[in-house]
Structure formats: C-alpha cells, structure tokens
Design goal:
Number of helices: 1
Helix content: under 10%
CATH class: Mainly Beta
Structural class: mainly beta
Shape: elongated
CATH superfamily: OMPT-like
CATH architecture: Beta Barrel
Radius of gyration: 23 Å
Number of strands: 14
Largest sheet: 14 strands, antiparallel
Order of helices and strands: HEEEEEEEEEEEEEE
CATH topology: Lipocalin
Oligomer: single chain
C-alpha cells in the first residue's frame, strides 16, 4: 500500500466513523462525541530472522531495528449514543528521528559462524489506523470511583512501517564505512481485535481510562528493496508473509478543564509477534528466478508517552 493512499484511507476512516452518526435525530435524543489530538514520543524495536534453503542453517540472516525514536501524533475520535452504544476510531502518524539497524548473516546453525555483520542507521515512518465498536456498562457510587464504565469492544486495525537503512558500516569483516546504502523495508500488520476499556470517573474533574486489546490473527506482509545487493532484483528484492498475534495496552489519565475541554496524559505499549514459525520469504534474484526461504520469526514492540487535548460535544449542545 502506498503511503499517500494509506493516509487518505486512515483519515477517511476516522471521519466516517465519527461523523456518520453525528445527527442526533438519526440515533435518538442522547449522544456524546469527542475528538482528541495527541502527540508525543514512542520507541520501537523490530526484528526478523530467516533460515537458509531447506532450513539450513536454521538462522541464515537476521535483521534488527533497535531504539527507534519516533515523533508521533494522532487523531482519536469516539462516539456514543443512548449512553450505551459506542464507536471509536484512530489515525496515527510517526517519523523515526533516529535508530539503529544491524544486518547479520551466518553459515552455521544457532547463529554460529558469522560471516557478515553491518551496523547502520535506521529511519522511516509508521502509521496506525484502528476502528472499534462496543457497548457501555455503567456503575455509580463505587468505593473507588464516583462512576465506572466498562466497554467490551471488537474492531479492526492496520499498522504500517516504512523503514530505511542508511549510513552503512561493515563490522564483520571490519572494513568500516561503505557508501550508497539506501535500502528499505516496508511492513503491514492487519487484523481483527477484541478488547476492553475501563473508565473511572473519580470526580467531576479527574478520571482514568485503562484499555487492553488482543489481536489473535494478524496478517503480516513485508516488501524490501536491498539497493546494494547485486544478487537481488530491484525495486522488489524479497517479500515476506506470516501470521502473528499482538497485545496492546494503555493507561490514560485525564483532567476536565470544563464541560467541553479536557487534557490527557497517556502511556501505551504493544507487542506483535509471529506464531507457528510457518512464515515464508520469497527472494527475487537478479537472474530472474526466485527462491523461497523459511521466515522463522518477526517481532515488533513499542512503548510511548503522549499528551493530548480533547474536545467534547453532546446532545445538549455542550
């Protein structure tokens, strides 16, 4: 998927999700709509490894992107009506400001007989799109909070990475810097999820929102352009696919300035990991042929801190 197309689709998804029910005469007399703008910092790590032809060696190549600092921002909207039915959508965008990449090759099993290793600069961008629907359940005057709301949810999400590898440095054999490295690795993680949001209103000003999602069947695909490897075709040097699963969590504290505006501090994290070890890597060779290799494992995890401002409107015009 092209970057421009995915951005347009993500913003369109958010607008449709939040505005398609916006007219109160279509849904009843009571509704609430919030729109949040959040920005902050996230750190991502990604790694994958593959075996050689026929599974030997069991780890032939291993790529890691570590300590990727991501300047991240997103738009989040949610909509509820009749104080019961709930819909939320998210579109997020981030730029990798710095990071580390390592590309290692082995000729022996279990990561032995290393014959090549380069340590390089990581860059690129990330994009996240998600849509969820659920039902609210409320409890009032609890010992821990003035009000508690539980929202079971189901949804669908897209997560994309367009990563780059530049500023090459060959560590093994130790030949040092080499010019012209400008490779790319683009991923797409997509699939359905289910989860829970738990909202505590401690008083009219302060509250806390806890969220959890489980993504049981994530379809992972990736395409790479290895610009300095003359053994591979370009611009598509190899393509990967596998099945993964993922977990997401968040802790969101908020302060209501007034009936319309509130401010949030949010900590979140997630981890996606391939499962079953049944992935494939199809490498396209310069001579026009291709070879299929076992893709052993792909992992992606991240943690971030965001600050946000939220605008709220309800059926009473507040």
């Amino acid at each position: 998927m092209k970057k421009t197309d995915s951005c347009v689709c993500g913003v369109g998804l958010l607008i449709l999700a939040c505005e398609s029910f916006a007219a109160p005469d279509h849904i009843g007399s009571q509704f609430d709509f919030t729109l949040s703008f959040e920005a902050g910092y996230r750190q991502d790590d990604l790694s994958w490894n593959e075996a050689g032809p026929g599974g030997s060696p069991n780890v032939l190549s291993e790529l890691t992107w570590r300590k990727m600092d991501v300047a991240y921002g997103r738009i989040f909207g949610d909509f509820s009506f009749q104080n019961r039915y709930y819909l939320k959508a998210l579109a997020g965008f981030g730029e990798v400001t710095r990071g580390e990449n390592r590309d290692t090759d082995y000729s022996g099993d279990n990561r032995t007989l290393e014959f090549s290793r380069s340590d390089n600069q990581a860059g690129g961008d990330v994009r996240d799109f998600s849509l969820g629907v659920g039902v609210k359940f409320h409890w009032d005057s609890l010992p821990v909070a003035k009000k508690m709301t539980l929202i079971p949810l189901v949804g669908y999400a897209y997560h994309l990475q367009d990563l780059t590898i530049t500023d090459g440095f060959q560590s093994n054999p130790p030949t040092g810097e080499f010019p012209g490295l400008n490779s790319s690795y683009d991923t797409l993680w997509k699939g359905a999820w289910y989860g829970l949001d738990l909202l505590f209103d401690f008083n009219i000003k302060w509250g806390l929102n806890l969220g959890f999602e489980y993504h049981p069947k994530v379809n992972f695909t990736a395409e790479a352009d290895w610009n300095l490897n003359t053994n591979f075709q370009r611009p598509l040097s190899f393509a990967q696919k596998t099945e993964a699963e993922g977990f997401y969590w968040k802790i969101d504290a908020f302060y209501r300035w007034d009936e319309r505006w509130s401010f949030t501090v949010l900590v979140e994290g997630f981890q996606w990991q391939s499962k079953n070890g049944n992935g494939t890597d199809t490498t396209f060779l310069a001579n026009g042929t291709s070879v299929q290799l076992p893709l052993n494992e792909v992992t992606w995890d991240a943690m971030g801190v965001l600050l946000g401002v939220t605008w709220t409107i309800d059926s009473d015009g507040r």
